[in-house]
């Protein structure tokens, strides 16, 4: 038979287990993707796309194209935020083929011009409205890529594009 102290300890243990279960459930729900909502997870380094199931093995980084921050979006798309010297922001997104998330502003925009061409055998699609938005997409080795910028100056995207296509490489992470 249980005495009062043993009963009290048992009740406390059951209550603690219930509270721990509720906290675990709530933490999992906060992290669960909701349709129509983007979840950005900051990475310590732009290379770390592992939470998306792949890694970004190489990407441009020099005195003109300076990586600022790395993100994983909805566990499918890696993003590297760039400063293009002197003061232009550009964004590189990478995902396994068919999973690339492109911001609505760029995906739904009616561009003034669209060009298709190749760089080193890679088919490139460049969409641009000068002074407003630019979006360049390509597919290579099982990955989709998008490079985009707002208020793009003097064909900035065209000037840096070849370096992005030649340099950026990704690979599926080992499970």
Q: What overall form do the CA principal axes indicate? A: elongated
Strands ordered across the widest β-sheet: 1-3-4-5-9-8-7-6
CATH architecture call of the largest domain: 3-Layer(aba) Sandwich
How big a fraction of the residues is strand? Answer: 35-45%
Roughly how much helix do the residues carry, as a percent range? 25-40%
Mean pLDDT, rounded to whole units?
82
Summarize the helix and strand pattern as letters: HEEEEEHEEEEHE
The number of helical elements comes to 3
Stretches where pLDDT is under 50 for at least 5 consecutive residues are 29-38
Count of distinct structural domains? 2
Count of individual beta strands = 10
CATH topology of the largest domain: Protein Transport Mog1p, Chain A
Radius of gyration: 23 Å
Determine and state the CATH class of the largest domain: Alpha Beta
CA-CA gap between termini: 51 Å
User: What class do helices, strands and sheet pairing give?
Assistant: alpha+beta
Biggest sheet details: 8 strands, antiparallel
Question: What do you see in this structure?
Answer:
The chain has 175 residues and is of the alpha+beta class. It is built from three helices and ten strands, in the order αβββββαββββαβ. The protein has helices at 4-31, 104-107, 156-167; strands at 40-43, 54-58, 65-73, 77-84, 88-96, 113-119, 122-129, 133-140, 143-150, 169-172. The strands form two sheets. Strands 1-3-4-5-9-8-7-6 form an eight-stranded antiparallel beta sheet, with helices on one face. Strands 2-10 form a two-stranded antiparallel sheet. A hairpin with a 2-residue loop joins strand 8 and strand 9. The radius of gyration is 23 Å and the shape is elongated. The model is unreliable at 29-38 (pLDDT under 50).
């Amino acid at each position: 038979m249980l005495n009062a102290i043993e009963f009290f300890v048992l009740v406390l243990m059951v209550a603690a287990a219930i509270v721990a279960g509720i906290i675990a459930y709530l933490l999992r729900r906060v992290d669960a993707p909701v349709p129509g909502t983007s979840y950005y997870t900051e990475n310590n380094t732009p290379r770390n796309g592992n939470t998306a199931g792949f890694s970004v093995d190489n990407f441009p980084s020099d005195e003109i194209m300076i990586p600022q921050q790395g993100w994983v979006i909805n566990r499918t798309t890696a993003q590297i935020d760039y400063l293009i010297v002197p003061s232009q922001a550009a964004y590189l997104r990478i995902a396994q083929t068919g999973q690339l998330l492109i911001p609505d502003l760029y995906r739904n925009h009616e561009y003034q011009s669209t060009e298709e061409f190749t760089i080193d055998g890679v088919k490139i699609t460049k969409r641009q409205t000068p002074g407003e938005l630019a979006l360049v997409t390509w597919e290579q080795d099982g990955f989709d890529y998008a490079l985009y910028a707002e208020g793009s100056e003097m064909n900035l995207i065209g000037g840096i594009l070849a370096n992005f296509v030649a340099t950026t490489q990704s690979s599926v992470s080992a499970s």
